[in-house]
Amino acid sequence: MIDSLPIPLSPPLTPAQQCMLINLVRRAARAEIMPRFRNLTRADVTTKSGPHDLVTEADHQAEAMLARGLQAMFPHALIVGEEAVAAKPALRDDVSEAELAFIIDPVDGTWNFVHGLPLFGVIIAVTRFGRPALGLLYDPVSDDWILADETTPSRLAAAIGAERPARVSAGGPLHELQGYMHYYLMQQERQEQLAPLLPALARCIALRCSCHEYRLLAQGAVDFVMSDVLNPWDHAAGVLACQQAGGVARMLDGRDYSTTITKGVLLSAANQDTWNRLRDHFACLLDE
């Protein structure tokens, strides 16, 4: 059983391997993502699950380059990309059985990317039997990234400049809390439950980009991120970045996050007290 496995005491990648991963992501961004930014034709953009779920040649080509590079560096690892899962959904189930898996979101925030907004990123999560072990949240526009693993605090780094720690906010009472919620991705019934509760918070919006939502949470700019759309390429890296920056990330019912969980509400917050306040405030979601 997964729950009986010993908790690894060493990070999944050595410092040298982490550098190789970062360099691969930066190369993919330079080669396949940034040349297409604000340079897409209509033929370069298609849809997946609906009219607002966009995919571009940048998504496909960046994922392909990242997958090739990761497989060469880690030949025994499972490599799973968002676009590969869109074509073959059963691939997602393989992550929970893999001793080492890399989960790729090649262009997170594709809607922003398509419409010329410089608010998108590349997310790489490394998991062990479905549990996050390393997370990379990369911004191709700024060429910087947040990196965290099981044994090391979250840190913000760039190709030029000193690395510095990433720390969550101090949290606070409900009326002071700011955060991100994937409200418009939720079912209408859930939206109707939540709508009367939102004015109690200082601010609750969405950036249409999990990469930057979790980056801002890990850096203390906001106090929480909440979602019930549990795509592992959106959340696995961000959950670890939050936790290793001093925050708390769990399912609303108290379970530890794992890529095996496909239903429920994931709440990541600045600290335990803030997490508890938000859990209690949104307790109606626990009755489902």
Automatic annotation (TrEMBL):
InterPro entries in the cross-refs: Inositol_monoP_metal-BS (IPR020583), Inositol_monophosphatase-like (IPR000760)
BP GO annotations: inositol metabolic process; signal transduction
PROSITE patterns the UniProt entry points to: IMP_1 (PS00629)
Keyword entries, A-Z: Hydrolase, Magnesium, Metal-binding
Pfam families reported in the protein's UniProt record: Inositol_P
Residues where Mg(2+) binds: 82, 105, 108, 234
Domain of life: Bacteria
Names of the cofactor(s): Mg(2+)
GO molecular function: inositol monophosphate 1-phosphatase activity; metal ion binding
Coiled coil feature spans: none
Gene3D superfamilies: 3.40.190.80, Fructose-1,6-Bisphosphatase, subunit A, domain 1
Family the entry assigns: Belongs to the inositol monophosphatase superfamily.
Protein name (database record): Fructose-1,6-bisphosphatase
Species of origin: Roseovarius azorensis
